[in-house]
Amino acid sequence: MTRAADTLTAAHPADAAARSADSTVRPAGTAPADDPELAARAAELVRDAVLGDLARRVVAECGADVGLVGVPEPLPGARAGEDGMVLRHWAGTRADLLHDLAVPAGLGLGGRALAERAPSWVPDYRAATTISHHYDAAVAADDLYAMLTVPLLDGDTVHGVVYASLRAVVPFGDVRISAVGKLAATATRALAGAAAWSKENPGPTAPVRPAPVRPAPARPLTPREHEVLRWAATGRTNPEIAAHLGLTCNTVTGYLKSAMHKLGVRNRTELALTARESGLVS
After folding, report:
1. What is the pLDDT of residue 225?
2. What is the pLDDT of residues 73-104, one digit of tens each?
3. CA of 11: how far to CAs of 50, 53, 67, in Å?
């Protein structure tokens, strides 16, 4: 299970911490505001509890076989300004190859979520053609296939990335994607609250990425629209996208039309160009 498993006293620490973040009352047991060193330590303990709880709840409440959480940290040998994280919390694992695994931004599914600051998923990690395969051995050791990653975003700050993985080849449905997204949002509010208590920035976080050339759409894309858009930007046809994601061609067409409307474009060429300029796809 997770490292934070033995430190939690509440049923759902992330919920409790998130509620505290919305109030002016300092949580019980945290340090006085005039003692920054103790306050920072208290915030660190809250972060560990929240992220450990998040990994477990992904398994308990979202039907995943394995839950993982990557924490942004400077990686050994990384150049200045390079993003990266380490998988510090886990639930449901059978092997230990994923424990404390360093993941630079852009590598694997979680690294892509960290780099693009957007949810990402594949029905079969080991057969996926849209990600790098640096971690296939670790994924295979736990017999994982389907995988979803969601960044914990608070404005321009990335607090981490949560993984939901299954030991079967299946497409991720909107219900499960939404469930993991809601847990991620709750955890993010709690982490922001912990940072406010300590009056410091939360732990090591991913640096702010350059602003895109074009502004993001006024109405944000849904996770499914974003995934269909990502595939369309690579030149895949609607039948190919439908087959990969387990959708019908009509459904894919509907998602693309919705994305075009939100981005204000008229065709697939403009859609791909605008998506890249807006930072929606790399």
Report:
1. 85
2. 988 877 777 889 999 999 999 999 999 999 99
3. 11, 9, 17
Instruction: Compute how many other C-beta atoms are within 10 angstroms of the C-beta atom of residue 128.
Output: 18
pLDDT tens digits, one per residue of 167-197: 999 988 888 888 999 999 999 998 888 777 6
> Cα torsion at 90, 92, 93, 98 (round to 10°)?
-20
Q: How far apart are CA 76 and CA 104, in angstroms?
A: 10
- Torsion angles phi and psi, residue 104, rounded to 5: -70, 150
Q: Is 216 exposed, middle or buried (0-12, 13-18, 19+ CB in 10 A)?
A: middle
Beta carbons within 10 angstroms of residue 159's beta carbon? 27
Structure token pair of residue 176: 């499960």
- pLDDT given for residue 122 in this prediction: 92
Q: Is the pTM of this model over 0.85?
A: no
Look up tokens 């993941």; give the residue.
Answer: 103
DSSP 8-class letter at 4: G
Which whole-number Å values give the CA distances from 144 to 85, 141, 181, in the listed order?
Answer: 20, 8, 20
For residue 217, give the amino acid letter.
Answer: P
**Partners of 71 in the β-ladder:** 86
Q: Which of 45, 11, 23 is nearest to 191 (CA)?
A: 45
